[in-house]
Amino acid sequence: MEKVLSKKAFPQWVKKLESYTMYLPRKDGDFWNYEVIKNPEIIDLDYLNTVLSPKKIIFPQREVLLEFSTSNEEELKINEVLPEEAQSVIFGVRPCDAKALTLTDKVFGGDFKDPYYWKRRNSTALVGLACNTPPSPNCFCLSVDGSPHSKEGLDILITDLGDKYHAESFTKKGDDLLNLAKALFKNPTAKEKKDLEKIQAESKKKIQRQIKDTKKIPPKLKDMFDSPFWDEESLSCIRCGICTYLCPTCHCFDINDEVTSSSPIKGERVRTWDNCQFPDFTMHSSGHNPRPDKAARLRQRILHKFQYFVELYKNYQCTGCGRCISKCPVGIDIIEVLEKARDYGS
Amino acid sequence: MDHNTYIPKLAKIIEIKEEVGGARPIKTFRTQFLSTNNFSFHSGQCAMLSVFGKGESIISISSSPLLKDYLQFSILKMGRVTSSLHEMQVGDIIGIRGPYGNSFPVEDWKGKNIIFIGGGIGLAPIWSVLNTALSIKKDYGDLMLIYGARTSKDLVFQEELEELRKRMPVHLSIDVEEPDWKEFVGFVPQNVTDKKPSPKNAIAITCGPPIMIKFVIKALEGLGFKDEQIYTTVENKMKCGIGKCGRCNIGVHYVCKDGPVYSWAEFKKLPQEY
Questions:
Q1: CA–CA distance, B25 with B140 (Å, rounded to integer)
Q2: pLDDT (average), residues B34-46
């Protein structure tokens, strides 16, 4: 379904979706982040990209898996805590971040479907905002099979056409959202369709960064496991982990018990994001660590994204959002690392 | 919605046996589920054990799947969860989820001789498959156990090992000389070379510390074992048990899901990161 909506009518559309929990990017100090929006009058899609991707809504940084407690009779009880099945809409999802969710889908799917992830995923519609200009100077989606107007993973893609939005729905979830405010939407005119094409073509030219010959990288990495390259590239890393915390595709997590009372015992088992750049991520309780240094951990991050994931799922586990490049405090640049690896020893 | 694998089933500790004392104590726990037991597993698989309030730890199941009354785990006191387990008493409740991972291809080994090679607590994952083979002994050829630990006090299943001697050759070793020790002195790989098990129609299974595994494999290769005849079980830090939390991988393999059992032919193809 392909429609056009005037910018003035946008808040009215959002208002029509009141029965949904709505997330929109909101400016908080210097940064944008997703927040639940109650008042659609204050919404603003004039933003670059959020610090954290909408992954944090589907797969929160901290979530309770179960509760446990001992009653007076000392009987231990556990209680499964699944997320509520609230119908939600996330507005303004950048195409790279929507695609990232199609990648975490692969991880949280498979033989063991993760019920926490899928409860939220299935009840959430994603309304994307195409990147007519790249939100970051470090965007490189074109180099990792993405595009600033990609619909992958989205229910609706909105494109800014100046005084109006072009909105295309690709799924039933998307159609439902448009149908709730039918009167606000018009069918696109031939000129509007032409404008859309032009904007899409131009947006690609505005992307400043790229990886050349990305396809050559996975087979090259496969032969570089034992290379001194990783020592060289990881020297400046201060293992802060920001690269993976901000990554829209990273999915590693920890599970721990948090206790509120020790006698009788009462507490929660919580899942939190974890980070392959931390030494204790892989350290056995004996002290043995299969990834004992920064080189092994940078290698894991790069190989996971550009070799292991490609081998397992036929996709790069990177959507080119550029967050890890922009926020790395020591300037480790994944594009540079990959290009150096591609040319290493030749 | 699919079954929620993160929710453990409650089980009662019905028996605790102190295997090894001292600074690196090992205890064997037998557990029974509180509700009906539909926990079916294969030798080599692991379970995620919970001590509520402390967390979870992945532990290999050391009982044979042919035994239906209880699950057995032999656990070295090491981290937060295993230390709490060591403080528990008979009657205490733990959580168990799983089983996770692949298993030993025991069906493919029928008619073959099997050499079990363990070091320290590494006998625990082997114990399950050893007992399975032993209980249907007529299906297999000759069985042999080569097992060692740092000192004679660090050997697990000592009573069972004495019983086992009546049914199959058992070759023990300790790392350094002790008074009254009549068996081999030296590391497990050296004992393998010393006992010279024949590779003919044989399978060798080894489990122990990573460094021991590496040298046992070298010793077996020296005796003429082919890569396909050598099996090992690998351990890594794990949180989920289902290939999602991202830390136990060796290359594209998640040890919790694609392992922990590997033939050396498969394992040597993976990056050497374990």
A1: 34
A2: 89
**Residues B220, B138 share a domain:** yes
Tell me whether residues B1 and A115 touch, CB distance under 8 A.
yes
Flag if A274 and B5 touch (Cβ within 8 Å): no
Are both B228 and B185 inside the same structural domain?
yes
User: Are B160 and B72 contacting, i.e. CB atoms less than 8 angstroms apart?
Assistant: no
Cβ-defined contacts of A83-88 (< 8 Å, 24+): A83/A116, A83/A119, A83/A120, A85/A119, A85/A123, A86/A20, A86/A21, A86/A123, A87/A19, A87/A20, A87/A21, A87/A123, A87/A124, A87/A125, A88/A20, A88/A21, A88/A22, A88/A23, A88/A57, A88/A120, A88/A123, A88/A124, A88/A125
pLDDT at B202 over 70: yes
Digit-coded pLDDT (tens) for A36-69? 988 766 666 777 889 999 999 999 999 999 999 9
Tell me the CATH number at B227: 3.40.50.80
Across the interface, do B250 and A82 touch by the CB < 8 Å criterion?
no
The predicted pLDDT at position A41 comes to 66
How many domains does one find in chain B? 2
Position B1 pLDDT exceeds 60: no
Chain B interface includes A253 (CB < 8 A): yes
Distance (Å, rounded) from C-alpha A259 to C-alpha B137? 48
**In whole angstroms, what separates CA A263 from the centre of its chain?**
40
Q: pLDDT by residue (tens digit) across A214-239? A: 999 999 999 999 999 999 999 999 99
Could B246 and A113 be called an inter-chain contact, meaning their C-beta atoms sit closer than 8 Å? no
Q: Is residue B127 part of a domain?
A: yes
Residues B209 and B224 in one domain: yes
Cβ-defined contact of B244 to A114 (cutoff 8 Å): yes
pLDDT value at A107 more than 50:
yes
Are residues B22 and B61 located together in one domain of the fold? yes
Gap from A265 CA to chain B (nearest CA, Å): 7
Residue A263, pLDDT score: 81
Chain B residue numbers with beta carbons less than 8 Å from the beta carbon of A285 are: 78-80, 82, 237
Which structural domain range is residue B215 located in?
106-233
A314 touches chain B (CB under 8 A): no
Q: What is the pLDDT of residues B48-78, one digit of tens each?
A: 999 999 999 999 999 999 888 999 999 999 9
Which of B100, B126, B156 is the last residue in one of the domains? Answer: B100
In a domain, B83, yes or no: yes
Residue where a domain stops, chosen among B233, B249, B266: B233
Domain contains B4: no
Residue B173 lies in a domain: yes
* Residues B132 and B213 grouped into a single domain: yes
Of A78, A225, A259, the CB nearest to B271: A225
Percent of chain A at pLDDT exceeding 90:
86
Average pLDDT, chain A: 94
Residues of B in contact with A110 (CB under 8 A): 243
